[in-house]
Design goal:
This protein is α/β, with parallel strands linked by helices. The chain is built from 15 helices and 19 strands. About 1% of the residues have low confidence.
Length: 451
């Protein structure tokens, strides 16, 4: 692929983990609205739960998460107490005449491994008091191998965890020092071995490209080392340099970052090496073993996308807990206050701590379905999606014409109303999705590079 093509489509675009996307959330969606939405949920449909842990022991300079740094447990313990209150209050807004079930639970951060083993037991116990966790539920946690320990892993087994996501990012020592994330291959290997020894077979890992001092050669070495750990799934993210949003990223000198051409070369090297190691490409930036449920979901057209990225989670309602956590309900999206102190005051006052969100219209649902099909399956039949919404694909004639123009660059193949990304176009899927995004030209935020 020529550099001119990279530059033509390498726009700053949303990641489309929601539609409308987060820059269009507004304060008309508040705790009262969210509470009403919760009360309207269908008790016959299982829920998905996301729990945010906004603490780390050390700041990784590439981090784009909502987190605080602490070397002491006291603020973590105070946070856990407030989180327990939020779980009780929020799940208490559900229809009290029915017992809801849960099909997915995900602990994210920050670093959930900053929790003590008893914290994990107490949080999971609080959830079980309010809802039933299905025997088939996926219960997952994000892990920093530097703060993982035997006690926590023992508690994970007791609490029913069956999947862990390990942050690797890069094994090269120069890159690790440049982003303040130093961890050895042996450490990561030992944590994964400890999880598998305890019976946790679902192992995800995160890798990144576009970091300071990365080269195609160092990327190749990291991917090959990672493959020896035999993870079931890999998430591969391009570093988003947004120092206007995350001030600590100013610690990364801009001149150490790869340019657009180098980022593309790194991305393509990761794709090629993971294909060599027999991983299936999932959407834009995930990979999985052929036997993994995520690969199965892809083959069966059941892959989904939410705020954690690609997922097998098909729950209609995802409820988020903790500061900045986003809930996705049939009625719309609701985001908790990202400020820890304000979130805590709202929770302790018995309120839902929602700061903003957006109600989803029928038009939004239609466009969201088209975008999700593109993001998940790299193809979409616009007429078929329109038919399920009781409308005609004729309404998308302008969008289809714009996408047909992309065939000149071998980005897509278009047959009537059917759009299919080519291998060349796969990394540019966000640019294709953006054609259907009616909000994009009115965005108030700045997004990361498309690749």
């Amino acid at each position: 692929m020529q550099l001119a093509l990279y530059e033509k489509y390498d726009l700053r675009l949303p990641r489309y983990t929601s539609y409308p996307t987060a820059p269009h959330f507004h304060d008309a969606i508040n705790g009262k609205v969210f509470a009403n939405w919760l009360g309207e949920l269908n008790p016959l449909q299982p829920l998905s739960l996301y729990l945010h842990v906004p603490y780390c022991e050390e700041m990784c300079w590439f981090c784009g998460c909502n987190t605080k740094i602490t070397k002491h447990y006291k603020p973590v313990g105070t946070y856990v107490a407030a989180l327990l209150t939020e779980i009780k209050n929020t799940l208490g807004k559900l229809d009290p005449t029915h017992r809801f079930t849960v099909s997915h639970i995900h602990f994210g951060g920050g670093s959930p491994t900053i929790l003590k083993a008893d914290d994990l037991r107490t949080i999971m116990g609080a959830i079980r008091k309010k809802v039933d966790i299905l025997p088939t539920a996926e219960v997952a946690i994000e892990m920093d191998p530097r703060t993982a320990n035997d006690d926590l892993m023992d508690a994970m087994i007791e609490c029913g965890f069956n999947r862990a996501s390990i942050g690797i990012q890069d094994f090269n020592a120069d890159v690790q020092r440049a982003v303040n994330r130093v961890q050895s291959y042996d450490l990561v290997r030992d944590v994964i071995s400890g999880l598998r020894h305890r019976g946790i077979r679902g192992i995800n890992v995160d890798l990144m490209y576009g970091l300071p001092n990365q080269t195609v050669q160092s990327i190749r070495q990291t991917v090959d080392q990672t493959a020896t750990l035999c993870p079931d799934r890999l998430s591969v993210f391009g570093y988003a340099h947004v120092p206007w949003m995350k001030k600590h990223q100013n610690l990364i000198p801009t001149e150490t970052l790869p340019d657009t051409q180098d980022r593309w070369a790194q991305y393509e090297e990761i794709q090629n090496r993971l294909a060599y190691h027999r991983y299936v490409a999932i959407g834009l930036d995930h990979f999985a073993h052929q036997a993994d449920p995520m690969a199965t979901a892809l083959y069966n057209g059941k892959l989904h996308r939410n705020f954690q990225g690609y997922t097998t989670d098909r729950a209609e309602a995802l409820i988020g807990f903790g500061p900045s956590a986003i809930s996705s309900l049939p009625q719309g999206y609701a985001q908790n206050d990202p400020a820890l102190a304000r979130w805590q005051r709202a929770v302790e006052g018995g309120d839902c701590a929602v700061e903003k969100g957006v109600a989803v219209s029928n038009e939004d649902r239609l466009r969201r379905d088209i975008i999700n099909e593109l993001m998940c399956n790299l193809s979409v039949d616009v007429a078929k999606i329109c038919a399920t919404h009781g409308t005609s694909a004729d309404r998308f004639a302008p969008e289809l014409n714009r996408i047909r123009a992309m065939t000149n660059d071998n980005i897509v193949e278009v047959n009537s109303t059917h759009i299919k990304l080519t291998n060349t176009g796969r990394p540019l899927v966000r640019a294709v999705c953006a054609v259907f995004d009616t909000y994009l030209n009115h965005a108030h935020g700045r997004h990361s590079q498309a690749v």
